[in-house]
Amino acid sequence: MRIVFFGSPESAIPSLRKILEEGHEVKLIITQPDKPSGRGKKITASPVKRFAIEKGIPVYQPRRIRKDPAALKTLSEIDPDLNVVVAYGQIIPASIIYLPRHNSINLHFSLLPKYRGASPVQWAILNGETTTGLTIFELNEHMDEGDILTQRKTGIHPYEKAFELEERLAHEGADLLVKTIHQIDTLTPLKQDHAQATYAPLIKKEDGQIDWTSEAISVDRKVKAFSPWPSAFTYFRGKRMKILNGRVEPTEPVSSIKPGEIRASRKEGLSVACGDDNIYVIDRLQPENRKAMSAHSFSLGANVKPGEFFI
Fold first, then answer.
1. Which residue, 172, 157, 164, is CA-closest to 228?
2. pLDDT tens digits along 193-238
3. Domain holding 230: CATH number?
């Protein structure tokens, strides 16, 4: 089958690789433009573009595909059988969606109609979901609202972070995708129940700030959901600090403790009081402008004392 593939991040690569392994002909890859990245703001290609170059597949990078007539012209000349979209990052116009013989399909990392939007993995963890899944649906002009072709359910492991869950879904999704493509002529699309829809808006850096007045389990979910980007963070002695790993440690309620108060500094980590009187133990962190380290090493070097506060 002649395919045009739309994708940008690392999580799209397993699907692209699997499509190639199955013998499909990927005629073109459409991905996001190169962007500044890292502290030095070096112009960097998307992971999908780097993979495409390695495989010798042509790449097209429109800044705004909805306002790029050359994109439609390029695809028309290719005359693909199918467009496949995996985490592309732009809204695709109807003229391109419906151009191929089989139109366009999208792999989404949730069980639609739950968690429509840009950050389904992060929001599933933030909301304490124990299950999630994968959906392959027919793309239309509305965000994640197209008819469902196939779905697969999977559990979320208790200590699984967002990047770990996303990586697992990316590989499971690649398998589901190629099976769906193989069966595309025989599948009966199922309309979504829009009344059951929930949304997963784009995660922003500022969303990562920890509110110590919340429950300890909410702090734990935020740390897992924001790993590795943008990282959950707090402030200590006026400086920003990323919280990279930790766990909830239930305790007997103690009315004298205040949210954010460091109750103990131990080899296991820093014990911090939360709004529900439970303790969140930080075992790995990254102080501002420094490398990641164990919380115990930081506490020794900074001479952290019980009674100090994270804010």
1. 164
2. 999 999 999 999 999 999 999 999 999 999 999 998 899 999 999 9
3. 3.10.25.10
